[in-house]
From TrEMBL, chain A:
Protein name: Centromere protein N
Keywords: Centromere, Chromosome, Nucleus
Source species of the chain: Oryzias latipes (Japanese rice fish)
Entry similarity comment: Belongs to the CENP-N/CHL4 family.
InterPro entries, sorted: CENP-NAC/CAD_complex, Chl4/mis15/CENP-N
Gene Ontology CC entries for this record: chromosome, centromeric region; nucleoplasm
Localisation per UniProt entry: Chromosome, Centromere; Nucleus
Chief location of this protein within or outside the cell: nucleus
Automatic annotation (TrEMBL), chain B:
Keyword NADP found: no
GO cellular component terms, A-Z: chromosome, centromeric region; nucleus
Keywords attached to this entry: Centromere, Chromosome, Nucleus
Name the UniProt record assigns to this protein: Centromere protein M
Bilayer-crossing regions: none
Places the protein is found: Chromosome, Centromere; Nucleus
TrEMBL record, chain C:
Keywords assigned by UniProt, alphabetized: Centromere, Chromosome, Coiled coil, Nucleus
Source species of the chain: Oryzias latipes
Superkingdom assignment: Eukaryota
Family under the similarity heading: Belongs to the CENP-K/MCM22 family.
GO biological process: kinetochore assembly; mitotic sister chromatid segregation
Predominant location: nucleus
Cross-referenced InterPro entries: Centromere_CenpK
Stated name of the protein: Centromere protein K
Annotated gene: cenpk
GO CC annotations, alphabetized: chromosome, centromeric region; nucleus
Keyword check for Hydrolase: no
Taxonomic path: Eukaryota, Metazoa, Chordata, Craniata, Vertebrata
Amino acid sequence: MDDTSKLLLQRLVRRIPTQMLKATLDKWGRLTVEQRQAMDFTQSKWALTQKLLSVCEENKLTLTHLAELEMIHAMENPNQGMWYTFQLLEPENDAQSVELTQFKQQFKCHLSELLRQMSVKIKKHTDEAVWIRIALGSSFSKPNHLKPTYVVHYLQTPYVFVRNLTSKLKPLLSQALTLATRHQGVKEANLSGRNLTSIRDLLMRQYQQVFPTKYRSPPEEEDQPVLNQHIEKEQGGVAAHRRHMAHQAFGDGMLPQLQSAVYMLDTKFRDPNNRTMTEREETFKCVVKFSSIDLLESLRSCASSGIASAPVTPLLSSIPLKGRNYFVVTDNTPGPSSQGHQTQN
Amino acid sequence: MSRLNPFAKLPGLNTASVLLVESEEHFQQSLAEALVEETSVTVNVRLAKSFPLPIENDESRPRIDLVVFIINLTSELSFQSAEASLKYLEPGYFLGKVCFMVTNARSSSVPAERLDAVRRLAASLHCPLLFAEEQTPQGVTNAAERLLTILKAAAGFVPFTTPLYLSNLTRCTLPPDIDQPSFD
Amino acid sequence: MAGEAASLEVEGPLSEAAQAELLELCEEQFAHLEKLQNELLLCEPHFSDSPQEQMQNRLMATEAELKKRQTEEPQLLAGNPDILLHAGKEEVLKLCSQLETVLSCCQAKRDKLRETKELEQKWLEEKTQVLKAAKNHVEQLQKEKEDISVHSMLQDIKEKIQKMKAYQETLMECLGDILEKHVPLPQMEAGPSRRKKSADSQISQELVSLSEILEVLMNKALQSPHDPYVIVDETFWPPYVEMLLRYGMAVRHQENSFKIRLGAFF
């Protein structure tokens, strides 16, 4: 075992919570039953690391085996780190028929053509997702297993989720992905978040949605407790209307968890009280960032409680509708619709 | 501008009506539930977010004997909303039929100036200022009890007392050193 | 007003006549109320929003109320003794409960005050005792000052010096005994190698005992407090120096590691 393997193992043990360590090691399957039973998980992390190091030496495990272990942990805990989304464009005729073995082979083949020092691992997760772990090296150095890039792709869908993408790997990855999935191009989907499942649900519309209609749906029966006959709400209708508007924009059910929404404003400054700024020719550039543990849920409750004015501005309601949380707002496009931004990071 | 008039309607028999105005519509519900528990008189509670009140309710609305503005001290908006609503009240209300109730005054995130502003407002209108604890059921009951005392006087249930008389005794007064910077 | 009229409706059995009378009274009052209400609605509201005028209105209203109160003649609620009894009973009961509340409140307050008083009294007592002790002390000092003489003082001090000297002597002796017993000079031992033995003996001949080291240190500290450092030479057995340094009895010079001084015990 070289120093990198030791370092990787140390980091892994530190990162995996003690109560999950046993299950992860079981799944890994590189230790014999006796070895696994000999592990005492009540020990300190440091002692566990030492023990594991000696076992790995004994089994002659290498860096690639440890990379496997890391990948198992990453797949078990998809909601870590920042995930960015890409969208594949212009599928070719046979794009729908790509299957795993073919994809694996093509992807590896295309990537290794481009770069020699690279370690790629591909695994299929239980929920149809293909997980790819890429450790990149330069032309003079070995693959850096300490900072791998993770790519998650659902076959036959145009979406790719990437974590820890370096600028160096980006063009290579784009090319390999488009070729392996039989598409012609790839672009950023302007959606990012810590919760992989949520952004996946958002993009693949796997949550209860609302469809914008011009007609007001009949007010839903609200299951509010029966009020005392002596208590009456003066503005009960208004409140119900607000709730209705909020539900129209964001739906009733569980919403995917997003952590932030960013708006790049590049518009003219408009404020009747501030003439100096309003009369300027140049546009006023600024970034507006909303952040919260669960952004969409907060927006909905803001709208339904009346903190934000109703109806909800299309800028906010288009987060779930368009499945993105990065917008560039310019004056050129009429109305509040926005223009995609191509270089995000 | 239609304003709420204290004498526009005849009072109901053995009935007192109170209007709770709170921009957050949060505390008013539990407070209302505590208020209607009162048995000696029938208490009608109307809940509103802010003034003006919808005109279509004018018919069904009883004579409002007391208007309570609930101000959450942690929110500037709550104070501004209450302040903006005041002009929709006939001046007759300010002769003892308005009171302010402040919540969250113990929260550490409240700037001292905001409480001073509420005090100033209440003092300038000669209205009583009550403090309420909304987090505990005990606090809600206490707040309701204190409101009921004022409400009964405001609705004329207490012999030999008038709302004006009570408000002259209980109105909020400013401490003389409110404008001095504090050094604590 | 309506409230007053309504509050007259007392629970409990009332004779029919009384009930009828009460109802009539209510009707009368309500009619009066309606009349007033109509008058109110008819008269133009002359209120204005300016705070000054509101203030004046308030003053006027209060004054009017006061006048009404002053001129109002107390009048019987109703002629029927039955009603009066009921109303009175209710009123008295209410008053009773109110007074009870006041009583319990006052009692609580009294208890609190009593507690505070006790605390204060205790504090006062303590302070008086302190004052007494201080006064005694002052008195004593004054007395001493009066009957003190140069001679007796000298005698006193001499005695004290004598005592101190004796005490120091015993301390020194004690220290010497301990040092002799527990930290003797390194003795020559029968070593395995002859060469080493001779080297050892060479050194030990020049070594001084720990008590001597201490003496040097102490003397130096007392004689030249501005420069209490002693140079460590080969006569100091290194383990002893180390021991002194380790237990804080001696301190090394910050710049010159060959110099040590006595720790600052005084």
